[in-house]
From TrEMBL:
It comes from Eiseniibacteriota bacterium. It comes from the Bacteria. InterPro entries: Beta-lactam-related, Beta-lactam/transpept-like, Diverse_Enzym_Activities, TPR-like_helical_dom_sf. This is Beta-lactamase-related domain-containing protein. Residues 1-10 have a biased composition (Basic residues). Residues 103-335 form the Beta-lactamase-related domain. Residues 1-79 are annotated as: Disordered.
């Protein structure tokens, strides 16, 4: 069975500048699994990983190297080659906007890919929606259960031998712009848009960044089939050293040796915390905010000023602007830990402690027998300390709701559960999820009038998303 092919990209012949990473010799691949220094991996769930290694065969489309050497012919890709998840098109989009190939992020996707006009799902979807992962297209992620994963949208798009057909087969779940949901298909469609807008393959466009940024080695990009589309959601293959150079390029505002490679304002928009958004897209202790296909750790960002590219199963490019440090992490089976701030603080000789979860502290107190009033006092004390020392604490909506719902399962903890959810509504009065969770708690303890009031408030805040909008809880 044939799977994706890939575009190799040439390396720079300019040599490293004084502030660049030092060169290293090119080692060979061995059957033992030792790889070219830092070739990275793109993996989904464990079930899909095993299937990929067994079945994925690929051919390569090469572009000329930075010298006048002739084009390299196609070749089969090794099954044991390792791959990386990196949204290289995050930089390409900024360049396309600067050059005028793309007029505006508010353009409809159908303006660049008219084939989508016959698919109602894409009506009203703009490039900004794709960039923000808010297309409203239905999509299922892997969850670690084999049969679910094999039928998921993640698997369908990873294995797709015809991305155009796969994209045209999508259907809509929500109105565009309604909510964030991570989808490989949004990134794959952005690649199709970029190719149409510029008249060049995505690999050829990346070459215009790869060479001037001082890349030391060739790179490649997986295709859905020979002479087909790049898998822009996943298939960029390169070494750790060159991924570090990509991170360094963004650290330097898109500039190298006085040459602007990626527009500075685009880099800034991609790597700066959006303070108007108070909750992360992914609730972890570092609080992941999605921004132009990069991730911003919201927790104590004002002090850290860091950002990172996040690939599947632990592939990361981490950039800490304050200390001028770039870290590349490669992995094949990561638990998605986030050690980078601790590493940076160690390297610069500063102490570091992981923050304490305020929701977790409340849960612990409740389990030790604290009543509702005690939990409220503890919450306000912790919030006061967090305001004074933000590096030491973390709180988010998902954590507070999860603690409230966990306590609600225990009959003797229902009053404490309600108190926790009331505190979250107090903290986030504009959140329909907080009101909805509190309504559900009121309903469970038999307080129907208060439940109805909270359901109405949730519905008013988010008419299309709140469960009460469809009659639930009324």
């Amino acid at each position: 069975m044939r799977g994706p092919a890939h575009h190799p990209l040439p390396r720079s012949r300019c040599g490293p500048a004084a502030h660049d990473l030092p060169p290293s010799p090119r080692p060979s691949l061995r059957r033992s699994g030792a790889v070219h220094p830092g070739c990275s991996t793109a993996c989904g769930s464990g079930h899909l990983d095993r299937a990929r290694r067994r079945s994925r065969d690929a051919a390569a489309r090469r572009v000329p190297e930075a010298t006048s050497r002739p084009r390299v012919s196609r070749r089969p890709r090794r099954h044991d080659s390792l791959r990386a998840l990196l949204r290289g098109l995050r930089a390409l989009l900024g360049r396309a906007l600067q050059s005028g190939a793309i007029r505006s992020l508010d353009d409809s996707v159908t303006a660049y890919v008219p084939e989508l006009l016959r698919q109602p799902a894409y009506r009203g979807v703009t490039l900004r929606h794709l960039l923000a992962m808010e297309s409203g297209i239905a999509y299922t992620r892997t969850n670690g259960h084999m049969w679910h994963d094999l039928r998921s949208s993640d698997a369908r798009f990873f294995y797709s031998g015809n991305l155009e057909r796969s994209l045209l087969g999508q259907h809509r779940e929500d109105p565009p712009g309604l909510r964030w949901a991570y989808k490989d298909s949004d990134a794959d469609l952005m690649g199709w848009v970029l190719a149409r807008a510029t008249g060049h393959t995505v690999a050829r466009q990346l070459e215009e960044i790869w060479r001037p940024m001082g890349a030391e080695f060739d790179a490649s990009w997986d295709l859905d089939r020979r002479n087909g589309h790049e898998h822009t959601s996943s298939g960029l293959n390169a070494t750790a050293r060159d991924f570090a150079r990509f991170g360094l390029l963004y650290l330097q505002g898109g500039n190298r040796r006085g040459e602007t490679i990626v527009p500075r304002d685009w880099v800034q928009a991609s790597t700066t915390l959006d303070r108007s958004r108070t909750e992360p897209e992914v609730a972890t202790w570092w609080q992941m905010q999605h921004q132009h296909y990069w991730w911003i750790p919201m927790q104590n960002w004002e002090a850290e000023h860091d950002f990172f590219a996040d690939g599947s199963r632990g592939q990361r490019i981490y950039v800490h602007a304050g200390s001028h440090i770039v870290i590349v992490q490669l992995a094949n089976d990561s638990r998605q830990e986030f050690p980078f701030r601790k590493i940076v603080h160690y390297l610069v000789g500063e102490p570091f402690r992981y923050p304490r979860s305020i929701a977790g502290q409340l849960l612990g107190a409740a389990r030790r027998g604290a009543d509702a009033d005690s939990v409220r006092r503890l919450y306000h004390a912790l919030m006061e300390r967090a305001q004074a020392r933000p590096a030491e604490f973390v709180i988010n909506e998902a954590g507070m709701i999860a603690v409230g719902e966990e306590l609600l399962k225990q009959p003797d903890k229902s009053a404490v559960a309600v108190a926790v959810l009331e505190l979250e509504v107090e903290r986030s009065p504009a959140s329909y999820r907080a009101h909805e969770a509190l309504a559900s708690a009121y309903e469970k303890i038999g307080s129907k009038e208060r439940a109805a009031a909270e359901y109405r408030e949730a519905s008013k805040l988010a008419p299309l998303l709140a469960k009460s909008a469809s009659g639930t809880g009324r």
